[in-house]
Amino acid sequence: MQELNGKVAVITGGGSGIGRCMALAFADEGMDIAIGDIEAGPGEAVAEEVRAKGQRAISVTCDVTDLDSVRALAETTKAELGAYHVVCNNAGVISGGPTTEMSAAEWDWVLDVDLQGVVNGVIAFLPGLVEQGEGHIVNTASIAGLVPMAAPGVINYTTAKYGVVGITETLHDELAPTGVGASALCPGVVNTRISQSARNRPEAAGGPVSEEDMGPPLELPPGMEMPRIIGANIREPEEMAARVVEGVKANDLYIVTHPETREAVEERFAAIMAAFDKLEASLG
Predict the structure, then answer these.
(1) Residues designated as active site
(2) pTM of the model
């Protein structure tokens, strides 16, 4: 989707971090913006930043785990901004703790937001994009969707992000004849508040934690370790947003952001190819 000026972008999780920076970057391209965020205050603050750039913007309180809430975001965007063209399924959370101690509720929370939230975005927005014959979906995955993060506390997150990559790969191929593109954003560590996800944790998963009781942004939750593949190279969300704009224009399937993770991806796919080599050798 090379021409963005005059179009409309929708971003879930748009009240902070990568989502906020995507909203501002798309506004700089001349797009109007719809922010969906479970936190109304930060969502409206970003909408104000967009308006200060001379673009129209709305903020809608949205819980991506609730399909009706995501559908309401789609309907409100169309009613107030006239259409939607770029849809960024970006809302995400992370939860800590060893796999042996992770509760079913913690699994459910992360999968509901990080995976089902993307599914709900596809259900709510894709028919309209296909009907109008143009558009683009950006699903925020992670390098954890390309390489398993073998470290305590991230198995539910990794599971969700692998699913997001699979959804996006399938959409990219399926939608090719329709004029609608799809991209998976696969960043490493970014300077955001995702490590403070527990501020919105549901009661079933242990309830919300006040910011006073959490560590600062980028300090990992208790029980979580930094996976080897990630390293310590922390990048800024503005850089991620710039890559997303480029990726939408080029219809890139994979939007990668941290070159230092390349070796780990190569190692993973080399291991898969080695398994095929072993099979072929056994078959003679």
Answers:
(1) 157
(2) 0.89
